[in-house]
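Open question from group meeting: does this chain pack into something compact, or does most of it stay loose? Before anyone orders reagents, we agreed to write out a predicted structure and look at it together. Recording both the input and the output here so the notebook holds the full record.
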Amino acid sequence: MSSEYLVLTLGAAVAGVYVFRDVIFGTSSKAPPVVTSNSKAAVEGGGDPRDFIARMKAGKKRLVIFYGSQTGTAEEYAIRIAKEAKSRYGLASLVCDPEEYDFENLDSVPENCAVIFVMATYGEGEPTDNAVQLMQNLEDPDFNFSKGEHRLDGLKYVVFGLGNKTYEHYNFIARKTDEKLEEMGATRLGPRGEGDDDKAMEEDYLEWKEQMWPALAEALGVEEGAGGDTQDFVVTEETHPIEKVFLGELSARALNKTRGIHDAKNPYPAPIVTSRELFRVGGERNCVHIELGIEDSGIHYQHGDHVGVWPTNPEIEVNRLLCSLGLWDRRNTTINIVSLDPMLAKVPFPVPTTYETVLRHYIDISAVAGRQTLGILSKFAPTDDSKQKMVKLATDKDHYHNVVAEGCLRLGQVLQYVTGHDILAESTPDNTTLWAIPFEVIVSCIPRLQPRYYSISSSPKYHPKSIHVTAVVLKYESVGTAGVPARWVYGVGSNLLLNLQYATTSGHEKLVEPLLMEGEKLERAHVPLYAIDGPRGAYNANSVYKVPIHVRRSTFRLPTNPRTPVIMIGPGTGVAPFRGFVQERVALAERTIAKHPESGISDWGTMWLFYGCRGANEDFLYKEEWPKYSEVLGDKFQMHVAISREGPRKPDGSKIYVQDLLWEQREKIRDALADKKGYVYVCGDAKNMSKAVEAVLMRILGEANGGSAAVEGQKELNMLKEKSRYLTDVWS
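Structure tokens returned:
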């Protein structure tokens, strides 16, 4: 029997023993401990582990789902599709990371099977890191599949893309995947799905799948209702030595305190070397500057890279769900979780662990509750009234939008809302209605808590022992509706950093007050507090706090030749990577001047920085640093600042922004780009600023070529992008 069948058989046996334990044993004894591995099961008979078709046949899978994912979202949607295929149609799926497989036999997928591609677009219309080889195989006409041709006749496929309409290359990879598959003779089942993260990815997905499933079912000859409800996991309460229980550690190495490479699978607990507030103290906004020590960690970074900060959920949401799920008194109980189909649904975090740990460290209970999740949980509603309310939220798109989406309700808050409780009150077992939701359902419904990424605001040449982060703290007011009052909503990652900043500079007793605006009512604010000491106090060593991080590489880089002019546009915290860029050039300039004191950097290209803020004394980031960099770089560094709420205005009285400063310098910009082959970098808001900057650049380039912005300007801008001389690091 194959090892794959053994895993499935063992999982089924464990489930059976767990479900019928009272009948079998005549007592309430728990099932014996089961140890499983989340690692990829080997193909039977020692076959090629990169052969996905062999794994499909061995596991009797009729669907194979490949996900191109950079942050984990595409993987989550791939798993959701697999689960629904099983529950609706009884179809078994193989969910695959494409970089773990070869695609020569993509033309040999059995006729009664289909391939589903869930593809995110990353950066400037690029595939995610794990989908690079897949896209190369699809696009290269010289790449032959197993039958000796670059053809996929007879292949049935589905495509769902994840993108953001504020970016120029919206869902480019999903569209390219669809285009290439169709060119090679494959047949798409249903429409191509395109999710827009700027609007409502969840709603785009729900609308698309209801059109996709009937087409897929017809093509594969299956009927809805063949699957039924099947659970993904079995959760058992067990006893383990406490030193073997994960209490928030993100890897086995962290639990066992063994050294190893630090990456996304084994984040490094970086000590906070120093931190400070960058905005005016006492103002209505916060911006955190934090320096994370990486000495002796083995971590290396380059200017322009991103740092992933692994957050935890705020304590108020952890406690809210512990009360709602009836786990308040069992919060520290050790649990083990077994997947009943490891090829479909891997246990998404390390086990054994505890209920509290899962809610605090491992699953994203701070996200706005999804409509599909509410539908799944509605069957566990404690009363008929709460069930009706839950079903309406799950099935009425407009009602869901008005109450949950606009109200920014997290899962715990929704459970309180439909049972008539005040979502602003601090949860206790006494004021919270119990929901009998099996914990395995919670684990199955709520995705893994993902890292938050920030542009690194330092250069390793200037700060080799630390990574700097510049983060505006996310805080905004929700839209109030009947039963859901308006309140402040706080971002998870940035508010964790703010907690750490205050703990580092002031101690725990100062954590609450600085987060509130003057006159703010605490009962409306619910200022988020975090368990910043970490698992077993590992993130607090003698009041030196730590936060787990890893580095994500970027192509957002300076040209290697310092003679090349550089134009940087970054208002607000968009200036973060450019601080690293300037430091990179300053460090190189200091060495060059020391080595060649006579000529120095006279032949270097100019660095222009176009920066914008609200007020010179309110939010002018690193105001005291830029003159120091100018002392080294001289006229090779020119900074132009637009202060929107102060300073000069346009003739019509409107505010001046970075794109206006760019136009004022149009002659120099034209010369730098057209004659000196300069580079343009844009960082910050994707929805408005970056588009306005592009419009001005097209106008400059169009006029320089004796034409219009729409024609010649667009052509020149496209040329810059194709040659990687126009690079962006933007967000919505």
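Observations to bring back to the group:
The longest strand covers residues 268-277.
Confidence is low (pLDDT under 50) at residues 1-45, 508-525.
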